[in-house]
């Protein structure tokens, strides 16, 4: 089965710019969630998409937005980039409403964003 | 307030020895799930083991076992017979509620396995 893939793997932006990160979910998974992992920290939940709708959101401002497409792939968009947005952005997929029998998420390798 | 606490920033263990990584959690929800993930330098989070709050027995997956002490709100990961490839960051995480979707992660423990 195809795992979670993310693109780009690395990118550099300047403050105030906008960025779009992409994620293809694991085959058969219909739910995608995004996490931000700052250096030396654990991942923090940004939001989750199920059936092309956002169905959960963490403590992130509205300039963090997303989309899910009919093929379950997803995008994370961040507007008006700030220096503190520099982080590893992880996409995770799962089946049906966010949970398998155990509820584990399957993660991609992430997109490392540097904001200068 | 921090929901997941991992008090060991770094740990060393010799190859073939067992190691315990500590995790305590805080929740008032009677239904929750606890997870451990491994993150190698590549960045990908790799699922290791899961424990549900109503599970009667401690979870085990190969060399990984979870020492679940509900009254103490701890969910320590035990890795037996450590291998060099076990060197990585290890994160404990919790999902609250039967319909919860977000995982709350701790800050992680860096494990180094030495020959």
Topology readout:
The complex is a heterodimer of chains A (116) and B (115).
Chain A: E1 5-7, E2 10-13, E3 19-24, E4 31-37, E5 44-50, E6 53-57, E7 64-68, E8 74-78, E9 87-94, E10 106-107, E11 111-115
Parallel strand pairs in A: 2-11
Antiparallel strand pairs in A: 1-3, 3-8, 4-5, 4-9, 5-6, 7-8, 9-10, 9-11
Chain B: E1 4-5, E2 10-14, E3 19-21, E4 24-25, E5 32-39, E6 46-52, E7 60-61, E8 64-69, E9 74-79, E10 88-96, E11 104-105, E12 109-114
Parallel strand pairs in B: 2-12
Antiparallel strand pairs in B: 1-4, 3-9, 5-6, 5-10, 7-8, 8-9, 10-11, 10-12
Brief summary:
Chain A has 116 residues and is an all-beta fold. Helix content of chain A is 0%, strand content 49%. Chain A is built from no helices and eleven strands.
Features:
heterodimer, A: 116 residues, mainly beta, 7-stranded mixed sheet, 49% strand, globular, B: 115 residues, 6-stranded mixed sheet, 4-stranded antiparallel sheet, 12 strands
Can you walk me through this structure?
The complex is a heterodimer of chains A (116) and B (115). The model of chain A has no long low-confidence stretch (mean pLDDT 90). In chain A, 0% of the residues lie in helices and 49% in strands. In chain A, the strands form two sheets. In chain A, strands 2, 4, 5, 6, 9, 10 and 11 form a seven-stranded mixed beta sheet that branches. In chain A, strands 1-3-8-7 form a four-stranded antiparallel beta sheet, with no helix packed on it. With 116 residues, chain A is mainly beta. The mean pLDDT of chain B is 93. With 115 residues, chain B is mainly β. In chain B, β7 (60-61) and β8 form a beta hairpin. The chains are: A mainly beta (116), B mainly beta (115). The interface between A and B is medium-sized, with 29 and 24 residues.
Number of helices of chain B: 0
How many extended strands of chain B?
12
Tally of DSSP helical segments of chain A? 0
**First-residue to last-residue Cα separation of chain A:** 37 Å
């Amino acid at each position: 089965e195809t795992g979670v893939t993310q693109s780009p793997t690395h990118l550099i932006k300047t403050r105030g710019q906008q960025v779009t990160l992409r994620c293809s979910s694991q085959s058969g998974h219909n739910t995608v969630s995004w996490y931000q992992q700052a250096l030396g920290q654990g991942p923090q939940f940004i939001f989750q998409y199920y059936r092309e709708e956002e169905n959960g959101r963490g403590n992130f401002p509205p300039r963090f937005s997303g989309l899910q497409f009919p093929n379950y792939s997803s995008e994370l968009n961040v507007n008006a980039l700030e220096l503190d947005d520099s982080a590893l952005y992880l996409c995770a997929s799962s089946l049906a409403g966010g949970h398998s029998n155990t509820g584990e998420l399957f993660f991609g390798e992430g997109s490392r964003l540097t904001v200068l | 307030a921090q929901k997941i606490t991992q008090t060991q920033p770094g740990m060393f263990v010799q190859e073939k020895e067992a190691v315990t990584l500590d995790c305590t959690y805080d929740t008032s929800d009677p239904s929750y799930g606890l997870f451990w993930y491994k993150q190698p330098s590549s960045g990908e989070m790799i699922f290791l083991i899961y424990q549900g709050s109503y599970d009667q027995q401690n979870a085990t997956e190969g060399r990984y076992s979870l020492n679940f002490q509900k009254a103490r709100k701890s969910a320590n990961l035990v890795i037996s017979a450590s291998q060099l490839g076990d060197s990585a960051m290890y994160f404990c995480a919790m999902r609250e509620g039967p319909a919860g979707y977000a995982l709350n992660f701790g800050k992680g423990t860096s494990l180094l396995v030495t020959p």
